[in-house]
Design goal:
Helices cover 31% and strands 14% of the residues. The chain is of the alpha/beta class. The strands form five sheets. Strands 1-10-9-8-7-4-3-2 form an eight-stranded parallel sheet. Strands 5-6 form a two-stranded antiparallel ribbon. Helix 1 runs parallel beside helix 5, helix 2 packs across helix 5 and helix 6 crosses helix 7. The longest helix is centred in the N-terminal third of the chain and has 19 residues.
Length: 475
């Protein structure tokens, strides 16, 4: 399939939601939903009363009726939960996750993709982080049941995803190797998923979506093309100016006077070598303008991936107070994005925009209790008994140390999981009074969003972004 020139970034948790992807795809470009933590997003939308009835509409389209109704009856609260009532806690993902959680992953990914595809015939993609490995199989299956066109994945080396897509398209059992710290020869830490355990009747084969790997080097692209267990259809090339998690600099880590990782020539992708692989590629990280689209095409790219401009448009899932505050600061020329080498529990640099009441404020960060109750970014490690343990450097330091972690690794770590869900408008409430603060991630080019802002306000649409990006074709 020949994909559009503009791919919308699959950002954060609930930021690239179904509304944004639908709006982008309706313009003939590739709308992309974020597949991260959709089990939490769906259940919290239902507990908020399902405003607009959109989740109900998606659940009504799900082919396994019993599964959809179980989720509706358990989580839907008519009129929404009381403001200071906590959201229901879900089980954390494990090597052998409970059926309830697997069903949630399947259904939540289906609903998000179904709604993104509703009302048009253009392609829709879904984006996953390879490092969040355990939910991959049921999540991909749910997205494929909804007819997702493209799967995009980065933040790791997704060598086994192409083969998984082949198997799930045939409703066959699939496996995925779990990376476990300290694993020994002979250990078997494999995630398994059998679609037949969830089907309520025979189903025709599914369409296998295209697979685009998100890479930060031509070497990684070559590795994926040669060693993946199935077809790789192209690449998204993300530079270190892109939002979210960044690949660490190559070589010895150097920190600037401002406290940010220093990137150099070794971190630049050789586009000649990349082009020689013969697969289409899109450039990302600072390419959100018509001029950059023109430059990318001249360099042999099929187009660009744009995140930041879409993350702050009206259809984005970002909560309005954060979005408005940052856009007002863009207009005032006061916005700042910091590449934080410590914030993420993964140890990867993570871009953080400075916004009041969020975890970018040192006082807000210091006041938050160290709680790890979602666990998407936990590290699986081998215990002395050969079983898997789970730890996170954003949990209490003494707890992390008791699991063999280095206390030094807990310094500056933030609970990205809870914070990103809060940024999407669903903050957890603790003890009826403590509200989880959010965190906003953005590319370094956040100031350039100014070109999309109207003179008399801060609201602009996904269609406005696309019209400006495509202006090169009218020149």
């Amino acid at each position: 399939m020949k994909l559009p020139q503009i791919i919308q970034g699959g950002m954060g948790v609930g930021i690239s939601n179904w509304r944004l992807a639908n709006a982008v795809s309706r313009q003939g470009q590739l709308g992309v939903v974020s597949g991260t933590a959709l089990d939490q997003i769906l259940t919290r939308r239902l507990q908020d009363g399902d405003p607009g009835g959109h989740m109900r509409r998606g659940l009504d389209a799900f082919p396994m009726r019993g599964m959809a109704e179980r989720i509706w009856s358990k989580y839907y609260i008519e009129g929404g939960k009381p403001e200071r009532q906590a959201y229901a806690e879900l089980p954390q993902h494990l090597l052998d996750s409970p059926r309830e959680l697997l069903e949630l992953c399947i259904v939540a990914n289906f609903v998000e993709v179904y709604l993104a595809r509703e009302g048009h015939s253009h392609p829709v993609g879904i984006n996953y982080l390879e490092k969040i490995q355990i939910p991959h199989l049921p999540s991909l299956y749910g997205a494929m049941l909804a007819g997702v066109t493209v799967v995009l994945m980065g933040a790791g080396i997704p060598l086994k995803i192409p083969g998984v897509l082949d198997q799930l398209a045939r409703h066959q059992s699939a496996t995925y190797p779990l990376h476990v710290t300290g694993a020994e020869s002979g250990d078997d830490f494999t995630v398994k998923f059998d679609p037949s355990m969830f089907l309520e009747g025979p189903m025709a084969p599914l369409t296998r979506p295209s697979f685009l790997a998100i890479v930060s080097s031509d070497v990684l692209a070559l590795t994926l093309q040669r060693k993946a267990n199935g077809r790789v259809d192209g690449f998204i090339v993300e530079g270190p100016t892109a939002g979210g998690h960044n690949a660490p600099p190559r070589g010895k880590l150097q920190i600037s006077a401002e406290g940010e990782p220093v990137y150099g020539d070794r971190d630049r992708v050789d586009l000649v070598k990349l082009g020689a692989l013969g697969l289409p590629f899109w450039l990302a990280g600072g390419y959100g303008s018509a001029e950059k689209l023109r430059d990318a095409l001249a360099l042999g790219a099929a187009g660009i991936q744009v995140g930041t401009a879409f993350a702050f448009c009206a259809e984005s899932g970002m909560r309005s107070d954060y979005r408005t505050s940052l856009l007002q600061r863009v207009k005032a020329g006061e916005v700042r994005v910091f590449t934080d080498p410590l914030a993420s529990p993964t140890g990867f640099p993570f871009k953080v925009a400075d916004v009041e009441t969020s975890l970018s404020d040192p006082e807000v960060y210091a006041a938050r209790p160290r709680i790890c109750d979602l666990g998407y970014l936990r590290e699986p490690y081998r215990q002395d008994d050969g079983q898997i343990g789970w730890r996170c450097p954003a949990e209490p330091a003494n707890v992390y140390a008791s699991k063999g972690g280095d206390v030094a690794d807990t310094a500056g770590r933030k609970c990205i999981c809870n914070a990103l869900i809060a940024t999407a408008g669903h903050p957890q409430i603790r003890a009826g009074r403590l509200v989880e603060p959010g965190i906003v991630t953005s590319g370094d080019d956040l100031p350039s969003v100014l070109e999309f802002l109207p003179a008399n306000g801060v609201d602009y649409s996904a269609a406005d972004v696309i019209a400006r990006l495509m202006a090169y074709s009218l020149a």
